[in-house]
């Protein structure tokens, strides 16, 4: 059962200069995730998620934050794809409670709104509220970026969906809050680094893995994965088959495309536990491609920032 918290019990003894890259501008949920996971860090805003991951690969940043799943949308395959294309490892997970605000220029009322801007995921999460408002939806690159755009262009017929923090930074008013379709709305982020987890010793570990297979092999592969872990008493915490027209993975210097991938998270560490290692080895024996994305401290807390 997840616990609900406003501060991190897994806080690491970070050096103050730890630099964490994220997509968006200050006040974006990814930046809030970075600050919660790595207290005292510097955050590095990036235009795209891919440039945030590249910043880690090149050494410009120590970590990058990737949103990987939400209660309302499930797994964000586009972001797992980045983990597969780049040479980075998962160092931590963090889940935020996402309570979206509707933000507008001071003095603007709902009746004046003609359009609402936000990240496409946020617009999708707030579909019912937007339908009630009868406004046009304008996707932009991140939630806080919508707030900044609205404020710098002084738009009086528009609102943004974003965090209260993003509104505060740009001096916008909160004209509604909790506008997501489902009251319980959380997003899980992975924090990646070049070398995986550093510094967390005592928390129970978990491992994230991706298994690629041919389109017509899905059922057989599912049975093999379940049996490899169940027969060794290893608990799965996530198993989702995702993909469609080809998931690209980097294998050495080559890129290969697979029709389907299975995203599997399980308790335990491939680095520290023999039964876990054996289960992964068994899956490797029958899958087209397996990549262990990282072993890291399991964190079931849902962080509530607002
Ligand atoms: O745009 C942001 O603020 C982000 O951090 C990105 C993102 C996402 O990609 O899912 C993160 C969490 C929210 O659910 C909406 C958008």
From TrEMBL:
This is prephenate dehydratase. Gene3D superfamilies: 3.30.70.260, Periplasmic binding protein-like II (3.40.190.10). InterPro entries: ACT-like_dom_sf (IPR045865), Chor_mutase/pphenate_deHydtase (IPR008242), Preph_deHydtase (IPR001086). It holds the Pfam family PDT. Coiled coil: none annotated. Its EC number is 4.2.1.51. Residues 19-194 form the Prephenate dehydratase domain. GO terms for biological process: L-phenylalanine biosynthetic process. GO terms for cellular component: chloroplast. Pathway: Amino-acid biosynthesis; L-phenylalanine biosynthesis; phenylpyruvate from prephenate: step 1/1. CDD domains: ACT_CM-PDT, PBP2_Ct-PDT_like. Keywords: Amino-acid biosynthesis, Aromatic amino acid biosynthesis, Lyase, Phenylalanine biosynthesis. GO terms for molecular function: arogenate dehydratase activity; prephenate dehydratase activity. It comes from the Eukaryota.
């Amino acid at each position: 059962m997840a616990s609900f918290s406003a501060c991190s019990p897994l806080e690491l003894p970070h050096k103050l200069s730890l630099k964490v890259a994220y997509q968006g501008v200050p006040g974006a949920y990814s930046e809030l995730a970075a600050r919660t996971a790595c207290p005292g860090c510097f955050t590095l805003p990036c235009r795209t998620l891919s440039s945030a991951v590249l910043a880690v690969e090149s050494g410009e940043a120590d970590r990058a934050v990737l949103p990987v799943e939400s209660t309302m949308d499930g797994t964000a395959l586009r972001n797992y794809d980045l983990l597969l294309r780049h040479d980075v490892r998962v160092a931590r997970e963090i889940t935020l409670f996402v309570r979206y605000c509707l933000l507008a220029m001071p003095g603007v009322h709902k009746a004046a709104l003609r359009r609402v801007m936000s990240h496409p995921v946020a617009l999708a999460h707030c579909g019912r509220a937007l339908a009630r408002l009868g406004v046009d939806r304008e996707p932009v690159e991140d939630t806080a970026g919508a707030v900044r755009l609205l404020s710098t262009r002084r738009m009086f017929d528009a609102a943004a969906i974003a965090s209260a923090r993003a509104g505060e930074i740009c001096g916008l008013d909160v004209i509604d809050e909790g506008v997501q379709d489902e009251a319980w709305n959380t997003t899980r982020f992975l924090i990646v680094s070049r070398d995986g987890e550093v510094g967390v010793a005592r928390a129970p570990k978990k491992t994230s893995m991706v298994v690629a297979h041919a389109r017509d092999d899905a059922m057989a592969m599912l049975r093999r994965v379940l049996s490899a872990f169940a027969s060794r008493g290893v608990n799965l915490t996530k198993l989702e088959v995702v993909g469609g027209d080809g998931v690209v993975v980097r294998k050495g210097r080559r890129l290969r495309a697979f029709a389907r991938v299975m995203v599997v998270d399980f308790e335990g560490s491939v680095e520290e536990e023999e039964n876990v290692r054996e289960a992964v080895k068994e899956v490797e024996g029958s899958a087209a491609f397996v990549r262990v994305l990282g072993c890291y401290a399991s964190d079931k807390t849902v962080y509530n920032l607002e």
